[in-house]
Amino acid sequence: MKVSDTSDLWWKSAVIYCLDVEVFMDGDGDGIGDLGGLASRLDYLAELGVTCLWLMPFYPSPDRDDGYDISDFLGVDRRLGDLGDFVEVIRIAEDRGMRVIVDLVVNHTSDKHPWFKAARASRNSPFRDFYVWRDEPPERQPEPVFPDQETSDWQYDEKAGQYYQHVFYRQQPDLNITNERVRDEIAKVVGFWVQLGVSGFRVDAVPFLLDTTGIVDGKKLLPDPHAYLRHLRSFLDRRSGQAILLGEVNLDRKQQNTFFGGSEGNELTMQFDFISMQKLYLSLARGDARPLEKALLSRPKGSPDIQWANFVRNHDELTLDKLTEKERAEVFAAFGPEKRMQVYDRGLVRRLPPMLQGDPRRIRMVYSLMFSLPGTPVLFYGEEIGMGENLDVGGRMSVRTPMQWNADRNGGFSTAPTAKLRNAVTPGGFGPEHVNVAQQRRDPDSLLAFVRTLIRHYRNGSEFGWGAFDVLEQPDKAVLAHTLTMGDRVIIAVHNFASEPREVQLPLPVAHEDRRLTDVFTDAHVPLEGNTLTVSLDGYGYRWLRLTARDDTGLY
Ligand code: NOJ
């Protein structure tokens, strides 16, 4: 056996599941999900095949940004439990073979954080410089991130007698990372959660965290913010050789590469592939796989240890900001034509199944694709059963409705009176009556069973997380045919973006002699003749084929 290979870099073949504790499972019947509730559902997640949970913020928070406004980085919000409950979740998850990563939201604090309270109270406070202050806001300012609520990144504070910077809501004053004590506090936060057993962090808003341009003298104090990210990574590596930084960096490819630390790979361990996600929707809208294909091929090579996180949907708006205006209009027209489905002129507040009108063929094709793309798949809770959104809630909260466990009241999420729920459940055809875990668990043809199958095959074949990616040339623009190669084994994945059946001729990536081709889902042997492979696909069909040496004894 080879020591220190694929199993060491666990994130390269993980199955990550993102959930918001507040809306996952309510263990004490007060209408708010909690850590006790989550603990009781860890077996469900293990059964699904998840290997890593990503917990959205569960820290004390006034909840102006659904927990992304934190008033104590070292605690648990009382409504959700306490540190003891958190440790129990970690322990049970570990026992079931799952790691846990948590959100690291240190671009800003809540304005109710004791640091900010002290900072605004006096210019002489040692905490004043924890934040970014100016007597006058700068003349040139970027477009606010939340343009529906904010017109500027700078807010005048009466008590302080100055303006403070806030890239997000005004209740989220930005921290000043050029201050050494701030960097020290961030290290303390990282060290604390690692010591409690987490396997890393989903790092919020990384480019904003490193952006020191609003800070007077920022460049002088911290000439290279990336040096800070490298420092944070090496600190984490020292504390735990196994922990990762999974960064939110919605920037172009060149800049994403910088956040990986280029070929050194010494900054973020992983990044979400925002570019491919956006192009996926363009491809779906057009029935043309090429925009996605191009996006995948444009990934920077980087270090072999880094990894891309593939996702179809997350907890925020489905951002389409990297598409051109015309492309965005196409996606809006296809998947969110009504104003209430859109937000900030750049995104959609819907989940995938309603956008695809519940077409099971198309939904399955998308998840087959996600699990076959090079990288690590990230599911947002409820995707595995095909939950929809609640547009009546409005904005980004539309997709953060309670998990649908069964067809009972409140979808089995809570025994509290419905009016007390943290967020209203999804109504209608995608609500708990029609879409829930209990029903799908017993149905071998359900989406849940399908996703479980995808996860099983993904986990059984290290080609998905580790293989070298390539595209097989063929003329049909509705079809994406790609390969993942690892040593002697090659996965050939073929996906049809059109509603009509297709047949494509694919050049075999290796000479066919002494090779065996198997259909991954059916285990059927596929005969090979010559160096061209003919693949037939149903409308929105998908195939995963595995090419191995004839004498390969692997159990896939
Ligand atoms: C990105 C998070 O995903 C989003 O939900 C949040 O509002 C902002 N960062 C601010 O923390």
Structure notes:
Among the domains are: 114-165, Oligo-1,6-glucosidase, Domain 2 (Oligo-1,6-glucosidase, domain 2), CATH 3.90.400.10; 467-549, Sandwich (Immunoglobulin-like). The longest helix has 16 residues, at 180-195. Helix 5 (180-195) runs parallel beside helix 8 (225-239), helix 10 (274-286) packs across helix 12 and helix 14 (360-372) runs parallel beside helix 16 (447-460). The mean pLDDT is 96. The protein is of the alpha/beta class. It has 17 helices and 21 strands. An 8-stranded parallel beta barrel has the order 1-2-3-7-8-9-10-14, surrounded by 5 helices. It has helices at 35-40, 42-48, 83-95, 114-121, 180-195, 206-210, 218-221, 225-239, 253-260, 274-286, 290-297, 325-335, 352-355, 360-372, 437-441, 447-460, 463-466; strands spanning 16-19, 52-55, 99-104, 133-134, 154-157, 162-165, 200-203, 244-247, 270-272, 307-310, 318-319, 342-343, 347-348, 376-380, 468-471, 479-486, 489-496, 502-507, 515-519, 532-537, 542-549. The structure holds 1-deoxynojirimycin (NOJ). The site of 1-deoxynojirimycin has 8 residues, from loops.
Shape, please? globular
| DSSP E strands, number | 21
Rg computed from alpha carbons, rounded to a whole number of angstroms: 24 Å
- Uncertain segments: none
For the record, the CATH architecture of the domain at 467-549 stands as Sandwich
Percent of residues in beta strands: 15-25%
Provide the helix percentage.
25-40%
Helix-strand layout with pairing:
Elements: E1 16-19, H1 35-40, H2 42-48, E2 52-55, H3 83-95, E3 99-104, H4 114-121, E4 133-134, E5 154-157, E6 162-165, H5 180-195, E7 200-203, H6 206-210, H7 218-221, H8 225-239, E8 244-247, H9 253-260, E9 270-272, H10 274-286, H11 290-297, E10 307-310, E11 318-319, H12 325-335, E12 342-343, E13 347-348, H13 352-355, H14 360-372, E14 376-380, H15 437-441, H16 447-460, H17 463-466, E15 468-471, E16 479-486, E17 489-496, E18 502-507, E19 515-519, E20 532-537, E21 542-549
Parallel strand pairs: 1-2, 1-14, 2-3, 3-7, 7-8, 8-9, 9-10, 10-14
Antiparallel strand pairs: 4-6, 5-6, 11-13, 12-13, 15-16, 16-17, 17-21, 18-20, 19-21
